[in-house]
Amino acid sequence: xxxxxxxxxxxxxxTAFGFAPSLKSASNRVGTxxxxxxxxxxxxxxxxxxxxxxxxxxxxxxxxxxGVPYLYFFMPPTPSGAGGKIIAKDALGMEVKxxxxxxxxxxxxRSLVQGLKGDATYLIVKxxxxxEDFGLNAICTHLGCVVPWSAPNNKFICPxxxxxxxxxGAVVRGPAPLxxxxxxxxxxxxxxxxxxxxxxxxxxxxxNPWWT
Length: 212
Description:
Layout: H1 2-16, H2 23-73, E1 86-87, H3 98-103, E2 110-114, E3 120-124, E4 134-137, E5 149-150, E6 155-157, E7 164-165, E8 171-173, E9 182-187, E10 193-197
């Protein structure tokens, strides 16, 4: 009994002088730690939101940078003048001048320029070194390949599926079902080559133009 009394007295003294753990202090420390953790979580969430905004913004700028030129590529060029006329352009985007063009070509030449709607179009140089009054759209009427001119064969031969067209674009061998589309070829007052839509009868077939 004396020993138990002595232990009790020692514990009571320690508590009185603050040596024993305080439940209230422990509770305060736990509460403080939770508050700090909550603050840290709040800061991290803000950082994540900012990073998400930066990523979304960067992606948007990238998509816009790639998408706008892509869409612009498929927009047809603006017609020059009345009646849907447009000035022909060469591979460098320069306007084609009639005099310079025929002087640089041989009789019978069929070379590509940019025509109506931006389509590749053949200009045809006649034997007298003048241009035909029509241009031939180079897009194959089978599946849309660009048809090259084969001078040794004296005809257009499609490399995709073997369709063939005569020097004026009429079909001589399938599977192409229709002739190459026509466009009027004129000369502007300042000597530039001009294309305009062909809407009358197709002189090769005697029928209405399929491309209008």
